[in-house]
Amino acid sequence: MDIATLFGLIVGLSLVVGAIFLGGAVDVFINLPGMMIVIGGTLASITVAFPLEEIVQSFYAGIKVFGARKVKARDVINIMVKVAEISRREGLMALENVQTENMVLKKSCQLIADNADPQLIHDTLRIEINAMRRRHQVAQDVFKRLAGLAPSFGMMGTLIGLIQMLSRLDDPTAIGPSMAVAILTTFYGSMLATMIFIPMQAKLKARTLQEQLNLEIIFEGARSILENNNPMLVYEKLSSFLAPKERGN
């Protein structure tokens, strides 16, 4: 589980809610029509901008950010070194029996076992990387659009509230409460954008870069094993992907 994402979301919401509690009445921040305008309008608009399947996949990707453990580059390097050890000890054909949930790594082991040309491995993994980037880009675009739509509908709700308020200027006692309700929709839109949609887009972008790096490591590892399956040499080459302080002695 990505503790940082969950921790940041909980702390951020807790601070905002805590500030509301310390400020007095909480019920003044609850307005059903405003929620309908912001949440309903945002969701309705995003279904116009993107196919439903892509929206569902994007929200699924956002949920996975909380549950999926981040695979570090060092872990991938260690796996490729172990693959090199197996190939050196048992031969390239033994890599056909490597068990892994990573389909790209499984495909790479199969290509190594088949003694495929390094260019073929490069082309195959490049297709995998491009396909992964396209999938992730869709999710990022969905959350980016949501981050723009939520404040817009918040402002729309504020305008609706102001129009309703101005239509009741003959009753001075209604101006204050009506103004509060009008501003609430902007608050809802800003909260959704700044606390959920923008951070989620940034997190997905970071995960895309990390997964791309991991695939690059798998490719370089596979090519190194074919060229020279000495585990120490494979590690020395792949460790270049790590920051100097993360490399072993």
UniProtKB/TrEMBL annotation:
GO terms for biological process: bacterial-type flagellum-dependent swarming motility; chemotaxis; protein transport. This is Chemotaxis protein MotA. The lineage of its organism: Bacteria, Pseudomonadati, Thermodesulfobacteriota, Desulfovibrionia, Desulfovibrionales. It holds the Pfam family MotA_ExbB. Keywords: Cell membrane, Membrane, Protein transport, Transmembrane, Transmembrane helix, Transport. It comes from Paucidesulfovibrio gracilis DSM 16080. One of its GO terms (cellular component) is plasma membrane. Belongs to the exbB/tolQ family. The chain crosses the membrane at residues 28-50, 142-163, 175-198. It is found in: Cell membrane; Membrane.
